[in-house]
Amino acid sequence: MPPNKKKGEMEGIDHRMVKVNGITMHIAEKGPKEGPLVLLLHGFPDLWYTWRHQIIGLSSLGYRAVAPDLRGYGDTQSPESFSEYTCLNMVGDLVALLDSVAGDRETVFLVGHDWGAIIGWFLCLFRPEKIKGFICLSVPYKPRNPKVKPVEGFKAVFGDDYYICRFQEPGKIEEEIACADPRRVLRNIFTGRKLGPTILPKDNPFGANPNPNSENIELPKWFSEEDLDFYTSKFDKTGFTGGLNYYRAMDLNWELTAPWTGAKIQVPVKFITGDFDMVYTTPGIKEYIHGGGFAADVPNLQEVVVIEDAGHFVNQEKPQEVTAHINDFFKKLQDKDNNKSF
Amino acid sequence: MEKIEHTTISTNGINMHVASIGSGPVILFLHGFPDLWYSWRHQLLSFADLGYRAIAPDLRGYGDSDSPPSPESYTILHIVGDLVGLLNSLGVDRVFLVGHDWGAIVAWWLCMIRPDRVKALVNTSVVFNPRNPSVKPVDAFRALFGDDYYICRFQEPGEIEEDFAQMDTKKLINRFFTSRNPSPPCIPKTLGFRGLPDPPALPAWLTEQDVSFYADKFNQKGFTGGLNYYRALNLSWELTAPWAGQQIKVPVKFIVGDLDITYNIPGTKEYIHEGGLKKHVPFLQEVVVMEGVGHFLQQEKPEEVTDHIYGFFKKF
């Protein structure tokens, strides 16, 4: 996208602060006030900014796109204790946000990527009647195992250096990120093509050459220096602890979501991933997605899309394709709704 | 009573003692504070005769079920998690539900967060109170009724336990169970429960045997488990933000005694009879106020309460 055009369109995105569930939340929004509302949820270590192409694309198609900085990120408040980063807190924020921005709409469309996908799954479990359809990027549903806590489970399967295990100790990985230089780490995370499972060895976790699979050291076309600057400046301001607290609250979250053991997702879902995504390429995931497990847990799973030559940040790597997939799915659901009312 | 089976079920990380009897559609009975499965002794026998499988657990923190030490293990999510685990382990998809006192609060929340697991609810004594987004519950009680309000007095770990320990547990049980004073219970620290006048003679519906049963269990276990539910009220409030504004979408019948403290909390009668409760519980089908009946209605008037419950569940 030519820089001038991009800048102009980015200026068309509105930013404001909303009081929700005891915190102040920053949201980016664009699109006709009465258009169908699409709530876009980013992941780790990300921001509303991940959705810049979708916000512009969807709004031009008549949707009202709303993308918050989630609790712990960017210009949204970051409570101190990791115990305030359970999915109950997150969904509490989002329900309050919808109360504030959704107006008369009874249902909204939902898009989630990475941790935003996980929160999306919980929003679908807790308040299914609010969600017309859910587009899940990268992270499929993971039903609660009543016998095994998540961190212990990951450790058993992938070892101590699995990134989720390495993220647990408060302050530790923050130190390592600081040593490896946040800008370099962010660049590695966004543009890397290392297949899963993501292991961070204690010695030199982010490596001298963080991209063993990449042939050159130039940024890819879809991720500019400007983009990297934006992320670096935001994370320099807030640090990474807010985002890391989601991982540190995983076991507590597991304890608190006992009531949903065995529960299925009833909302219509479309799942999209890139074929080089480290989640998709983590052992067990492909089998779950394509082998029937996913469909059994999500009976209304309508489509599974694997986008070729795309990594984890598929919404940034292949923005037009992803926007088209989103519109396609939501349009189908909208049409179904309209037909029902005849 | 000998026909009632007692089993221990492993659920949600605890061992749960369950009393059960009968075969047929399952009814799950949830007791309150300071109570036990035993509260439902009459209903267990009657419903077995009526062709149901009646199940009454000791909830987490009570009787022969486990009592995790920290108040933070007693949020509404923990208790509902225990019950979903219980239903899963019994292979019950959808259950008939009956709640009383704290068990009623648990029942409201089981219906709120897993309506797919409940066929119908008969709830007693405690109405559904929608979450106030600006005020935590304990803070609200303190503002309304003062620091001596029993819920406020129950907050500090160990404090009220010390007061209770200075009393004969049988007298304490008697006082809790037979009180007919409808005003909000405020117990100044200087007086304590121990300083209250001796309760009158036992009513006909509560025998010495009954009181001994309760006293034995609470002497064994202590009151901390049950008190922890009150200590987790504010935390539960924080964690139930996702259901702000949500209604309870299960068919409901509500029963309360007109001498029950809860019925006499200012505003409650209007809330129940003038549409407030129905707004939050749109499938509220019947409300019954039992004349001359106090808080422990299922023990005071067991046949009447059984009839009310049966009359409702029969419809489904």
TrEMBL record, chain A:
Domain AB hydrolase-1, chain residue ranges per copy: 38-323
A Pfam family assignment: Abhydrolase_6
Pathway where this protein functions: Secondary metabolite biosynthesis; terpenoid biosynthesis
Single annotated GO MF: epoxide hydrolase activity
Domain of life: Eukaryota
Task of the protein: Epoxide hydrolase involved in the biosynthesis of cucurbitacin and mogroside tetracyclic triterpene natural products (e.g. siamenoside I and mogrosides IV, V and VI). Cucurbitacins have cytotoxic properties and exhibit deterrent taste as a defense barrier against herbivores. Mogrosides are nonsugar highly oxygenated compounds used as high-intensity zero-calorie sweeteners; they also possess pharmacological properties such as regulating immunity, lowering blood sugar and lipid levels, protecting the liver, and acting as antioxidants and antitumor agents.
Protein name per Swiss-Prot or TrEMBL: soluble epoxide hydrolase
Protein species of origin: Thlaspi arvense (Field penny-cress)
Automatic annotation (TrEMBL), chain B:
Top enzyme category: hydrolase
Keyword Hydrolase (UniProt): yes
Pathway it works in: Secondary metabolite biosynthesis; terpenoid biosynthesis
Domain of life: Eukaryota
Keyword ATP-binding listed: no
Catalytic activity: (24S)-24,25-epoxycucurbitadienol + H2O = (24R)-24,25-dihydroxycucurbitadienol; an epoxide + H2O = an ethanediol
Keywords assigned: Hydrolase
AB hydrolase-1 domain location: 25-302
Pfam families to which the protein is assigned, alphabetical: Abhydrolase_1 (PF00561)
InterPro entries the record matches: AB_hydrolase_1, AB_hydrolase_fold, Epox_hydrolase-like
Function: Epoxide hydrolase involved in the biosynthesis of cucurbitacin and mogroside tetracyclic triterpene natural products (e.g. siamenoside I and mogrosides IV, V and VI). Cucurbitacins have cytotoxic properties and exhibit deterrent taste as a defense barrier against herbivores. Mogrosides are nonsugar highly oxygenated compounds used as high-intensity zero-calorie sweeteners; they also possess pharmacological properties such as regulating immunity, lowering blood sugar and lipid levels, protecting the liver, and acting as antioxidants and antitumor agents.
Protein's name according to its UniProt entry: soluble epoxide hydrolase
